[in-house]
Known about the structure:
The protein is mainly alpha-helical and about 500 residues long.
Amino acid sequence: MTSKFVLHPGNLTFADLRRVAAGFCPIELADSAWKNIERSRATVERIVEEQDTAYGINTGFGLLANTSIPPSQLDDLQRNLVLSHSCGVGDDLPDEVVRLITVLKISSLSQGYSGVRPELVQHLIDFHNAGLLASIPEKGSVGASGDLAPLAHFAGALMGEGFIRFDGEKLPAPVALDKAGLKPLRLKAKEGLAILNGTQVSTALALRALFDIEKVFGAAVVAGAMSLDALKGSIAPFDDRIHRIRRQPGQRDVAPLYPALLEDSGILASHEKCSKVQDPYSLRCQPQVMGACLDLMRQAGETLIREADAVTDNPLIFSCEGDVISGGNFHAEPVAFAADMLAMAVSEIAALSERRLAILIDPYMSGLPAFLVHDSGLNSGFMIAQVTAAALVSENKTMAHPSSVDSLPTSANQEDHVSMATYGARRTGEMARNAATVVGIELLAAAQGIDFHAPLRTSPALQVYHDRIRREVDFYDRDRNFAPDLEKITAMVLAGDFAAVAERLLPGAEE
């Protein structure tokens, strides 16, 4: 049975979030959190009882904030809010993203600034622990006023509206709740708004993208080292003296990985006295490019872990002072910038990989058989695999245009500047999966190039990765249907089969 982890609101770690993304794990809330939730709820109930005016508790929303709502209709106000905002479209968000959304929302609501009842938080925990996953359409949020439409579908599932995935089936929400032994949630004052306001969807999407990019990054380091060996490149550009005087931390951290991977390579030893002076940039400048990508990943990671621990709904309840303050923590600009940084990083990782692949298949630059296959002409080898990689790199370049610079006013100009963080984070995940295929193709090509150097062998470290590839994908001796091989190697990259080499460099590695 999967062990529980204790959720300390506002103190989530990368280890916690990676565990949630990786698969189902039950949670329990730290005992200390319940008093904060109760204190915050008491403030809301005092406002309702005394009929003080507070946005979203006893008023309308957005441009309708000046419309007062009588006490008898406050529950209906919250229900109507959820139903009216359930306007998402497109495919459902994947399971790992929905798990992250749920845990992030529990953490946010449990910090004692949102005014929800303890019963609502417990319902969320029970919902998650039962293995229920709200069906949340992926499109419909502009990343301001919270991820309104997707979080409305999330709230609706708790209420018995819409659909829920349970045991691999997509079921009407009432049916799924009944199977799990749960009753639909009835929202009280402030609670619908507390769920709908927040950056949990955009943050979850960005975290999932980050976790995938980390795996692509590690695979790209391995692929780059394998390509360097297959192409009989020089390790002189990885000398620490070069990187020390550049003073860029990512570059200095990445550079030593390559000589470590190539240590004791028979192929490398075979050309120690060669006359080659310099390799192409895609080989020689790997520390500079990959190091810069690592710096962006770390910066984005710092933003996202803060956002994961943040309270981002509105209005916020400061129960010690008895204040209810309307603000704008739901504006997801930090997440949008983080997603754009990740998009730039993963675009460059894939672009550099594709350039090494292009050298590998070019007999004039590589010294290897054309397109890495015997009897080229009769066989096309890796010719179109490189075309596929080029197509994905070009697609990523287009998607790398920053989403954060776009804004369209919404809600009758009340919400007149938005972040587009939700799209930005979602597209970065797609870019990561494109990059995984590009790097995967390079891994296959580099392994093929190493095979052509037999009886010379690569380094012991790279041989481990080479053997791992060959267990799944055979040497390309003649033309065959290549698509299944690309699917296998992409899955290996995204499963983290090549990620260990860089794990100590990634966000949260110090935890």
